Amino acid sequence: MTDDDLRAAALLHLRARTAAKGDPVPEPLVMAAMYHLPGDPRGVNGYGRSENPTWEGLEAALGHLEDAPCVAFPSGMGAISAALMATLRAGDRLILPSDGYYTVRNLVGQFLEGLGVTVETRPTVHFLDAGFEGAAVVYVETPSNPGLDLCDLGAIVRAAHAAGARVIVDNTTMTPFGQRPLDLGADLVVAADTKAPNGHSDVLMGHVASRDADLLARVKDWRKVSGAIPGPMEAWLALRGLETLELRFDRMCRSAQVIAERLADHPKVQAVRFPGLPEDPAHALARQQMTRFGFLIGLTLADEATAERFIDGCALLQPATSFGGVHSSAERRARWGDAVPAGFVRLSIGIEPVEALWQSLAAALDAA
User: Fold this and answer.
1) Element containing residue 189 per DSSP (H, E)
2) What is the pTM (predicted TM-score) of this model?
3) How far apart are CA 285 and CA 282, in angstroms?
4) In DSSP terms, which residues pair with 290 in a beta bridge?
5) Residue of 58, 115, 109, 75 lying closest to 92 (CA atoms)
6) Do residues 299 and 266 make contact, with C-beta atoms less than 8 angstroms apart?
7) Which domains can be identified in the chain, with CATH numbers?
8) Using one digit for the tens of pLDDT, what is the confidence trace for 187-231?
9) Is residue 256 within 8 Å of 276, Cβ to Cβ?
10) Sheet of strand 318-319, all strands in order from the earlier edge strand to the far edge
């Protein structure tokens, strides 16, 4: 039995630990902007922008998985924005991956640089090479999205802390069941729970987790004063999805291993990136710092037209942006400006029976 097994089992019974006789078994959905508040307002729910019991249920579940307190946000970018605003000031230097999620670079370029933050970008595989002297914040994403390159989280944390910098890790692609950045010393973890944690492609949600109480208090203060709050209904749906994360994640990762191995042997596929393949350049590091290899696969086809024919021709692929849903999905990432070949496809493996999924993928590749 693994620690993840214990976390997954206990997650389903968290509410029972504090439930009173007669309480509903599921987390109640509390739709409230105002609370009954006579007299002294301290110590109770006061206003819907500051407190909501349904958020607290979601945060307790996320905190259980992260083994750290969490603050929920209405999207992954909401969580990332809060983490950056809580840690940066004018004149600070921020180091970002040049090949990570492009919206983070857009946020920094369009807004934070104008507020006096200096930004340096580096490719994920060389993130550690130049050191971190003079940096205030080091922001890491591993595996990188969409290229699936890895960097050594433990080494980066040690070097960054020695230089006096804080480390923020985006763990969206792996979830706490696949990688545990806080255990490797990260100061903050951010994630888009829109993806696998919710899993049903019907909710935007994100969270920030930290074992630094003062740092997390600043994140929570940012949420309160900025109004970047999740809706109670969305929090309730995300919590409902989270309860099956371990089950879905296990199937998705197992299926991805099978699919990646077969894609590597298909004549239409020029290259495959998947950390679980022994020949992948990130395989050794993945075995060291990840507990699973994930459910994302990068495959390169001959050109844009071939990639689009493959995606459109596969009956069991949803052509959509984002990833982590119960359905398998795919998109040609160059259309968003990512620095990948025109025929590069980011493939997100869902929970379809693996042989049926492979049959559909192989038929689409043969016809592309």
Assistant:
1) strand 188-192
2) 0.96
3) 6
4) 179
5) 115
6) no
7) 3-242 (3.40.640.10), 245-367 (3.90.1150.10)
8) 999 999 999 999 999 999 999 999 999 999 999 999 999 999 999
9) yes
10) 271-273, 296-300, 344-348, 329-332, 318-319
